[in-house]
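Re: that backbone. Tokens:
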């Protein structure tokens, strides 16, 4: 993976070995942001499950990714100057500052209350929602059973992993209800038919796109049925975001994040991801 000096480079993972399921492009932020802002960029693709499983450790691309992002996480962005960018929220803010000014996706038109909410909740999502995904999907990362442990303890490890996953799912629901109460209802007075999005804006911001992604991405995450009962305001806004932007809609569909379009057939296959 060579450093690109004329455009941004996005490292992304693709799931390539699920039966009957096409490879998955990267999560919409910052992928959709690069597209809606018409930013020239190059994509470097990895086999997501291969990376998670530690396969092909000598892959030159993987070695280069480790050099700029030791946690080997997606997405990773390499700027035209060769600077590595990690963390989705940081990438969103960087691209907005560099390319989003004077566009409907920028933040310059937000009033002080909207601006405060934008930064608060944009950071809240990866700080609180994303970590729970790890507990639900990869509980083994949070348990280390010594080799010296007796066989009874080792045999009970599956139960411990289930407890971690169950606690993660419970906590995830609590966090989404916080979002419903404080972002969904908290900003509701600013919304109307002309300004229907999260912050009471006429056009969606990247906060809208990020929340829609997390509401409907991959396995075990809040889907439209759960949201209909517990977070109806956020569900309604997610539906408006999908309906209101062709690029967001296409990007979500490419990622099989399409339950808000009434296409939940991908869920069973995605639930088979270890």
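Recovered sequence:
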């Amino acid at each position: 993976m060579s450093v690109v000096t004329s455009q941004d480079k996005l490292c992304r993972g693709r799931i390539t070995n699920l039966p009957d399921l096409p490879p998955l492009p990267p999560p919409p932020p910052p992928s959709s942001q690069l597209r809606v802002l018409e930013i020239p960029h190059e994509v470097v693709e990895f086999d997501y499950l291969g990376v998670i499983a530690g396969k092909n450790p000598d892959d030159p691309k993987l070695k280069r990714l480790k050099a700029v992002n030791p946690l080997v996480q997606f997405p990773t962005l390499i700027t035209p100057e060769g600077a590595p960018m990690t963390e989705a929220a940081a990438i969103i803010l960087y691209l907005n500052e560099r390319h989003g000014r004077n566009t409907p996706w920028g933040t310059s038109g937000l009033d002080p209350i909207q601006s405060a909410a934008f930064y608060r909740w944009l950071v809240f999502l990866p700080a609180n929602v994303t970590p729970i995904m790890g507990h639900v999907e990869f509980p083994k990362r949070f348990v280390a059973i010594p080799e010296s442990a007796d066989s009874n303890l080792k045999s009970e490890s599956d139960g411990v992993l289930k407890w971690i996953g169950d606690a993660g799912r419970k906590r995830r629901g609590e966090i989404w209800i916080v979002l419903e109460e404080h972002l969904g209802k908290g900003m509701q007075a600013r919304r109307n038919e002309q300004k229907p999005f999260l912050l009471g804006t006429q056009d969606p911001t990247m906060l809208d796109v990020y929340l829609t992604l997390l509401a409907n991405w991959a396995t075990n995450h809040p889907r439209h049925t759960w949201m209909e009962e517990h977070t109806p305001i956020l569900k309604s806004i997610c539906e408006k975001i999908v309906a209101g932007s062709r690029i967001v809609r296409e990007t979500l569909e490419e990622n099989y994040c399409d339950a808000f379009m009434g296409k939940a057939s991908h869920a069973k296959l995605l639930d088979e991801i270890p």
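Residues 10 and 77 are 5 Å apart (CA to CA). The radius of gyration is 19 Å.
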